[in-house]
């Protein structure tokens, strides 16, 4: 019998899973997180896995299950359905389950680097209240967390979604978890901190930087630095001041510049795609059709 280590890495954790892997973000240029999903067996007698240092959340992508876990020698169980979230403690754990639905059973596993949790806690000025009190909960229902996990799962399966989008979501998720599930009472102080402002001069600095770097793989940290804010505060303040998320704003500017190039130049679709920050012509075409209702070639011909 193979000995299970007490602790392993997020990348190595995959080898302990029982299901067939459906989606993985491992080869995406994402920062601070790894997301995988699996088609699970309808019944699993026993699955043993080591602990993880990274924060790990799981949810169902389809189906429902009766799940049991053994943590520190004690079995506990819960019936899990779509929308439920459960936390994987940073200690060796045993699982067993069986499906309680006619739907295929598939799970989503999100691993968030502990360093990001600590960084966001510092930016929120939570002091010693950065430890999340989730390990005692076999399951919890939080529609916002479930929605963020679903959005990240869809993004991991869609090559057209940018790193900036995933970056924004994982920062928001870390902040939400710290705000609502950190130990102690210090997290409540964040509610009384006066909101920061993003003055027009700083907004222009950010937008000028985006326009000058449309072809770059932009990240929240890059934009926050231009605004003189932390990554956590930047995403929140930017949306309040502009009415758009950073990802939405960048995507709109990329498509607007692409439309201009299609009208004003004879560059190929691939050349334009690369010039405005898309990885390939196919990814660009998908996003352009979403935004303009037609393919780039059709748009050029119509113009």
Automatic annotation (TrEMBL):
Q: Kindly provide the name given to this protein in its UniProt entry.
A: HTH-type transcriptional activator RhaS
Instruction: Indicate yes or no for the key word DNA-binding.
Output: yes
Keywords in alphabetical order: DNA-binding, Transcription, Transcription regulation
| Stretches assigned to the HTH araC/xylS-type domain | 204-302
Q: What is the lineage of its organism?
A: Bacteria, Pseudomonadati, Pseudomonadota, Betaproteobacteria, Burkholderiales
Q: Which Pfam families match?
A: HTH_18 (PF12833)
């Amino acid at each position: 019998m193979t000995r299970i280590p007490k602790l392993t890495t997020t990348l190595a954790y995959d080898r302990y899973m029982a299901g067939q892997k459906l989606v993985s973000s491992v080869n995406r240029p994402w920062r601070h997180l790894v997301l995988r999903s699996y088609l699970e067996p309808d019944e699993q007698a026993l699955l043993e896995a080591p602990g993880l240092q990274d924060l790990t959340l799981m949810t169902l992508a389809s189906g429902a299950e009766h799940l049991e876990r053994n943590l520190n020698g004690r079995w506990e169980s819960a019936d899990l359905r779509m929308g439920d979230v459960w936390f994987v403690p940073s200690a060796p754990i045993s699982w067993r389950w069986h499906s309680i639905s006619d739907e295929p059973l598939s799970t989503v596993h999100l691993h968030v680097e502990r360093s990001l949790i600590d960084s966001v806690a510092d930016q929120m000025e939570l002091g010693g209240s950065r430890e999340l009190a989730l390990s005692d909960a076999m399951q919890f229902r939080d529609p916002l967390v479930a929605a963020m996990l679903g959005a990240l799962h869809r993004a991991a399966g869609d090559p057209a979604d940018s790193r900036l989008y995933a970056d924004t979501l994982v920062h928001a998720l870390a902040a939400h978890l710290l705000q609502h599930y950190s130990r102690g009472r210090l997290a409540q102080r964040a509610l009384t901190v006066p909101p920061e402002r993003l003055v027009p001069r700083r907004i222009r600095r950010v937008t000028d930087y985006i326009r000058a770097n449309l072809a770059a793989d932009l990240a929240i940290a890059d934009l926050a630095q231009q605004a003189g804010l932390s990554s956590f505060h930047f995403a929140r303040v930017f949306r309040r001041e502009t009415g758009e998320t950073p990802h939405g704003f960048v995507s709109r500017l990329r498509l607007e510049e692409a439309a201009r190039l299609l009208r004003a130049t004879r560059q190929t679709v691939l050349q334009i795609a690369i010039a405005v920050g898309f990885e390939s012509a196919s990814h660009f075409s998908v996003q352009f059709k979403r935004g303009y209702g037609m393919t780039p070639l059709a748009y050029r011909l119509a113009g």
